[in-house]
Write a structure and sequence with these properties.
- The chain has a single domain (2-211), classed as Rossmann fold, CATH 3.40.50.
- The protein is built from nine helices and seven strands.
- It has helices spanning 2-16, 23-30, 35-40, 59-66, 78-90, 127-136, 154-166, 170-173, 179-188, and strands spanning 50-53, 71-75, 97-99, 112-118, 137-151, 190-198, 202-211.
- The protein has a seven-stranded mixed sheet with strand order 3-2-1-4-5-7-6, sandwiched between helices.
Amino acid sequence: MHLMRSILRTTYSLLYHSFAWSYDLVAAVVSLGNWQEWIRSSLPYLNGRILEIGFGPGHLQLDLAAQGLPVFGLDESPQMAYQAQRRLLKSALHPALTRGYAQHLPYQSAAFNCVVATFPSDYIYEDRTLHEIHRVLASGGSLVIAPMAWITAGLLGRGMAWLMRQVGETSAVAGQVPSPLREYLNRVGFSVESHLVELKTSKVLVCVGKKADNSESLRP
């Protein structure tokens, strides 16, 4: 398991940096063409002023900006920032993108109604990250995370179901927030709910952490 995590971490880093040009292609292949639909599964849970952490090539940024929503993005990868900026400018939209780390968000407190992270890496489990997200959310704001998705149709779907049982992800298959993520979110002060989004040939788990509606209001 440790070896697998190490391999996945290295692969993720390469795709996000040196091989960023191939990110969309690789994502489409491994998801059997579902990748962008998986990312868009977070849309129904987003409103108001939005910060996307780890915006990647900018597909969700484009969807949100096209709806006229005030959306901001933070990502540490210069390659991804370049791709996302080009994508938005090509659609005559004005990007509000920043390079930085989720552990040190360069925004004032209570600045956003929603923070979203789709398929984030291990940084989302760091206390510093979650405390920073909690800080920049306004009272009653939401942290929306899509931590995993899986194919449900055909032989691959049966294989995925078997694999998830082997690694103990049966709670996710049932539409529940994985215990480690729930514990981290609760500890920081989020109440947590989960949503299992069923698509044609796949499912996406969307977790929503709500900040208590008893602190500072949204700041301009």
